[in-house]
UniProtKB/TrEMBL annotation:
The entry's keywords: Oxidoreductase
Species the sequence originates in: Amycolatopsis pigmentata
Highest taxon above the source species: Bacteria
SUPFAM superfamilies: NAD(P)-binding Rossmann-fold domains (SSF51735)
Protein known as: SDR family oxidoreductase
Organismal lineage: Bacteria, Bacillati, Actinomycetota, Actinomycetes, Pseudonocardiales
Alphabetized PANTHER family for the sequence: OXIDOREDUCTASE, SHORT-CHAIN DEHYDROGENASE/REDUCTASE FAMILY (AFU_ORTHOLOGUE AFUA_5G02870), SHORT-CHAIN DEHYDROGENASE_REDUCTASE FAMILY PROTEIN
Domain Ketoreductase residues, every copy: 9-188
Family statement: Belongs to the short-chain dehydrogenases/reductases (SDR) family.
Amino acid sequence: MTTRPLEGKTALVTGGSRGVGAGIVARLAADGAKVAFTYARSADRAKAVAAEAVAAGGIAHPIHADSRHEQDIEAAVARTADRFGGLDILVNNAGVGSFAPITDLKIDEIDAMLTINVRSTIIAIREALAHMDDGGRIINIGSINADRTPFPGQSVYALTKGAVSSLTRGLAHELAPRGITVNNVQPGPIDTEANPADGPFATALLGVMATDRFGTAAEIGAFVSYLAGPDAAYITGSSLNVDGGFTA
Ligand SMILES: NC(=O)c1ccc[n+]([C@@H]2O[C@H](COP(=O)([O-])OP(=O)(O)OC[C@H]3O[C@@H](n4cnc5c(N)ncnc54)[C@H](OP(=O)(O)O)[C@@H]3O)[C@@H](O)[C@H]2O)c1
């Protein structure tokens, strides 16, 4: 019998109801982790993600928690730890982007990017650490736009993902004494509802990439699962691109 690499581990993924997050939930569960994941609006989608993971022999549990609210994040972490008896892996995936020149951005759009992409990540990590044993894993989902922002209209989104990259580096030092690694996965264009492979930006994006296709949520899930596993103990403080050569 083969042992799955994350057997016995517990995980919380924020924003697991769709897109990249759903791919991460599916892979962590398939690799043996007990996975809780949050959603805000897509309750039916969240149920379907959980049902698919269970049908594939895994454990996945949806939790309604809006990343804009501190109490929701605290409750999601606490519920995960209570239900599974601890928390080994935190994946901060929930994120939003509003893409427009800075002169056109509304205050609600700016607040949403700062709150969901940055503030909620800080809060989730702070809460998770109360439950995480030595050897835990924190994996943030940043963006390649932290390093490369070739098109107008991406500046504030890029700022939020740059903040995630900086947070990752600082925390790596803070948490290394506990054997907890902190990494930042920076996807390039991934085919999701937020950035469809046949969407309005696709031609421009493919024009600056080495590969001729968008990535998939499953490809991000596979890399996150590797970082969450025992073979990745020496990787920490890194921002790691999974981007089809977007930065090549
Ligand atoms: N797709 C790409 O090309 C790409 C590239 C680089 C980085 N990323 C990053 O990858 C992550 C996922 O992106 P995606 O493309 O999968 O986006 P998506 O398809 O729009 O999915 C976003 C996910 O985040 C959740 N979410 C949004 N607001 C939330 C809130 N307030 N509270 C809790 N959950 C919330 C959504 O849940 P509900 O539907 O339930 O609200 C959904 O599950 C983001 O951090 C994004 O910046 C994506």
